[in-house]
Design brief:
Elements: H1 2-13, E1 43-45, E2 53-55, E3 59-62, E4 67-72, E5 85-88, E6 105-107, H2 111-117, E7 124-127, E8 129-130, E9 139-141, H3 144-147, E10 152-153, E11 157-162, H4 168-175, H5 178-187, E12 189-191, E13 194-196, H6 199-204, E14 206-209, H7 212-257, E15 265-267, E16 275-277, E17 281-284, E18 292-294, E19 304-305, E20 309-312, E21 317-318, E22 321-322, E23 328-330, H8 332-337, E24 348-351, E25 359-361, E26 370-371, E27 374-377, H9 385-392, H10 395-402, H11 415-419, E28 422-425, H12 428-471, H13 483-486
Parallel strand pairs: 5-10, 20-26
Antiparallel strand pairs: 1-2, 3-14, 4-11, 5-6, 7-9, 7-11, 8-13, 12-13, 15-16, 17-28, 18-27, 19-23, 20-23, 21-22, 24-25, 24-27
Helix pairs in contact: 1-7, 7-12
Length: about 475
Amino acid sequence: MLLCLRATALVGRNRCRPEAGYQPHSGDAGKAGSVSAPAYPGYRESGVDWIGAVPAHWNVTPLKGLIERNDGGVWGSDPDGVKDTVVLRSTEQTVDGRWRIEDPAVRKLTADEIEATLLIEGDLLLTKSSGSSLHIGKTTLVDRRVAALRCCYSNFMQRIRLNSSLLPELAWYVLNSDLARIQFDFLSNSTTGLANLNGTIIGRVIVPVPPLDEQRDIADFLGRECSKIDTLIAEQERLVALLDEKRQAVISQAVTRGLNHDVPMKDLGIEWLGAIPAHWELTRLKHFVGGLTVGVVVTPTKYYADDGVPALRSLNVREMRLVDENLVFFRPDAHAELQKSALRIDDLVAVRTGKPGTTAVVGPDFDGANCIDLIIIRKSSAFSSRFLAYAMNSETCRVQYELGAEGAIHTHFNVETASNLKIALPPRAEQNEITEYLDQTCGELDSLREEAERAISLLRERRAALISAAVTGKIDVRGLVPLEEAA
């Protein structure tokens, strides 16, 4: 909470001192701070709906007139360890246009391929093929660090090298803003669900172009202000990570040690478990639940209907709760046929693939629903469903279902693995006490997490609005001085 408040205060403090007031973003996001700046003295219509009016002395033009080189990439052949070349891929680009080069590919390229695709400082690389509109057109700028790698780029990327009419640093902001990304999404042609760009399409993107001296002012302004916002976003992301870590620690402590730290303990010699209260039992899941099974997995689409009985899938399962996002439905007659996978209140469902072992309790909203490819743990009088769900989402259970005998991570959580999970089981009354404690404590942590996520969302909106306002000339940033420099 303190970090959230500090972030809000910091954003509010980091403003530029304007001659006249113009705030490009208002509403709730404005409460997190805004850069006030004057408008230009005169505007003209750009003739492009998504750009609107631009300063009267700016140009609006297709990108192709600003490009010196517009080239596809190469992949080459398998490396042989002799003069191999680093080839960057679109997976090394983040969705917001940053580099994340951790384990780059090394390939064997011919001399001609290297000459054609060698990257130099100032080049811009665009992802030109993706199944997601979030990734199509994402653009990274080759800086000095990347250029020093003497690297090339893959055939799923397009390199543009600008002429002297547009600064690469400003183009990077433009191409990663909605101004360009919406055009990329619209212009990309789709084949089998995969959106594709090419050099011609990229050249058709229309952008506003200020005079060169203003370009430098805008790029410097955005670099300075976006850096401040990025720092605040990083603080909030660290807070989210700390809250997640705290939540997991609280759960693991409660479901293996209990709430009374004065009771005698016993060490069962299991490294990942440690000591548990002496009056608890360590028992396999199959010995105290009402049964384990798996939801329908064979051609479930033949049972689908536009409406009917909800059929839960892994994407509907979160830790401790179920969501109705992208629900599918079974025909009532199909549901009657598939009673083995029908759900009742206080049953548990666990994910098999994706985030294996993630477990939720079936509540009233999904009583009588069906499910697809989920492990179903039937309720019994021996346990509190919410206590068991907390235990199954704890680190002690994750160690068991994620790691095999040789330490390889399992991508599937199956009934056999679930049946043999070792659970530290307290008496039923104590299970209820622990559940009440975890519901309250985790609820408080979840509320703080939601606050931090809202702050991140507002900061990102603020950043996007600031970039859009600056690159389309809605604010005049020439000569603006940050408060800390003007003071």
